[in-house]
Design brief:
homodimer, 193 residues, mainly alpha, globular
Chain lengths: 193, 193
């Protein structure tokens, strides 16, 4: 029991990691814990639009654990170029450390979900990745492009970064987002980097 | 698609609701979105200690939606006495409004999970309620009783408020917590109200 308690208190640290987007109407930045909650419910709401039939429970499991490595590494902005392999190796080491707090076997199941998400090879992982990429876009579309403007991210860079995954995992969502992103480009809600 | 987007952006408001406990090491108060994420993972970690075998996926579904009514009502402190029925009616109205944003049928599934949690009658709902009640206790035990001291909550009141649900849904967790609560009483980490 103590190992489980230690694990769940270790997870508390994810509430203190900051992402780049702010919740609507709030000054502070979003953290990966509340983000993970929100995309689990987005996945549950969108499941009938997945590119192929998926096991929703496994999708939700992946989404609940996918950001846990950021307890050690912090949120590395989704638009950073380069250094990708080093960051992923650091996140994997963090995931192993954190899931390793649990009693034998229990952590292995979480690590499998984490790795399935990262590999992005199953229909479930592709759908989970689509939902994860889409959420900050949806918030930015409702937030006058807050994190794009703050970080100097252009329309082209947003599209390059999110289109392949969203199209692969949830094509109907990409159709919706592509049109909305075009509309917002006219309004100047992007950076010019 | 627009109804699903409207729903998920409505959910964003839960990130701005404040609970009474603070995440470990942070000055701000916890919000129900990150709390819901954390207890979903606590349930997944504790499932072998549930009072009877449960369908974990339904437990997680319940925990992800159980606080959504607080978007309209705010967090009503768990230790408030009286006014219980009015608060629950207001939360139900809120849940109906929010899940009603979704296309036909989809909201009904979420509302069923919400109501199953509230009724607390199935093994899954009992386990989910146990996990929900236990999490702020675990944080307070790691936080020198922060929300108990701030709100003048006595040891007796904590036990009266959480023991029945935790014992019913996850007896091994209650055995652990009862001993820890007794230890902490010696240290004066409770209010005297």
């Amino acid at each position: 029991m103590q190992q489980i308690i230690d694990f769940i208190l270790e997870l508390d640290k994810l509430k203190g990691v900051t992402r780049k987007v702010r919740p609507l109407g709030l000054d502070r930045y979003e953290n990966p814990a509340e983000h993970s909650w929100q995309i689990a419910l987005l996945a549950a709401s969108l499941v009938h639009h997945a590119a192929s039939p998926v096991n929703l429970d496994r999708v939700i499991g992946m989404l609940l654990v996918h950001d846990i490595g950021e307890i050690d590494t912090g949120d590395t902005i989704a638009f950073a170029e380069g250094g990708w392999e080093e960051r992923k190796a650091a996140e994997l080491a963090a995931a192993r450390r954190i899931f390793g707090i649990l009693p034998d076997g229990q952590g292995a199941r979480f690590l499998e979900l984490w790795q399935e998400f990262e590999s992005g090879e199953t229909p479930e992982a592709r759908f989970a990745n689509a939902v994860d990429r889409a959420m900050p876009v949806l918030l930015n579309l409702a937030n006058e492009g807050q994190s794009w403007r703050e970080n100097g991210i252009s329309h082209e860079r947003v599209v390059r970064r999110v289109a392949p995954q969203i199209r692969a995992g949830c094509p109907a969502l990409w159709t919706y987002l592509e049109a909305r992103l075009d509309e917002e480009r006219e309004k100047g809600w992007f950076g010019f980097a």
